[in-house]
Amino acid sequence: MLTARITKPVGFDWACQEQHGEIFRFARGMNAFRRAHPALSEEQFYADADIHWCSPQGGPANWDPNGKQLACMIHESGQGALYLIFNAGANRSDFHLPEVPPGFRWHLAIDTFLSPPRDMFAAGEEEPLDEAGSYRVESGSIAILVARRRATGGASK
After folding, report:
1. Exposure string for 47-63, b = 16+ CB within 10 A, e = fewer
2. First CA to last CA across the chain, in angstroms?
3. How crowded is residue 12: how many other Cβ atoms within 10 Å of its Cβ?
4. What is the maximum span of the chain, computed from C-alpha positions, in angstroms?
5. CA-to-CA distance for 63 and 46, rounded, in angstroms?
6. Can you name the residues that pair with 108 across neighbouring β-strands?
7. Looking at the domain that runs over 18-149, which CATH code has it been given?
8. Phi first, then psi: what are they for 43, rounded to 5°?
9. In angstroms, what CA-CA distances link 121 with 5, 40, 98?
């Protein structure tokens, strides 16, 4: 197995942090998201049972080299799933949402099209989606959904 490790600190001009605060905020949020989802840090390839590649319509992915939309569902052990949606096309696209296990619901974690602070939610604070069965991803954007257990009681999340 090939791995790459950074052994020396990577140079970063911290004086520019204020000037590029939104980029810093987003990068920090993405690092936190990865830490909150260990399935994204595995040091091995996913098995077929762990990941499913999908077309926007919900069927198997179309591996056409000219294809511009793709999604994948990554199963998390005991925690539901992640649904990563990529739209590199020139037009918005509605992506069919896979079914989640009973008692779970899709929540929006990240949508790069949305303006801050609604582009990224902290772990446990993701925005629940309605039960429409699809999610619209704008041109040139990425969205990440998290399947979480439904809240019990009166809470909406």
Report:
1. eeebbbebbbeeeeeee
2. 40
3. 9
4. 49
5. 18
6. 127, 145
7. 2.60.40.1180
8. -100, 30
9. 29, 17, 21
Residues 134-146: pLDDT tens digits? Answer: 999 999 999 999 9
Could you tell me the two tokens for 132?
């429409």
Token pair, residue 100, equals: 């989640």
Q: For residue 55, how far is the Cα from the chain centroid? A: 16
Q: What is the pLDDT of residues 55-64, one digit of tens each?
A: 999 999 989 8
Whether the model pTM is above 0.85: no
Q: Tell whether omega for the bond before 60 is within 30 degrees of 0, i.e. cis.
A: no
Residue 25, token pair as written in the block: 């905020």
Q: Identify the pLDDT of residue 42.
A: 78
HSE value, Cβ hemisphere, 13 Å, CA-based, for 87: 21
Planar angle of CA 75, 54, 4, nearest 5 degrees? 60
H-run or E-run covering 82? strand 80-87
Tokens at 17, concatenated: 């942090």
128, amino acid identity: P
Q: Measure the CA–CA gap between 87 and 70, rounded to whole angstroms.
A: 7
Show me where the domains of the chain are located: 18-149
pLDDT at residue 3 greater than cutoff 80: no
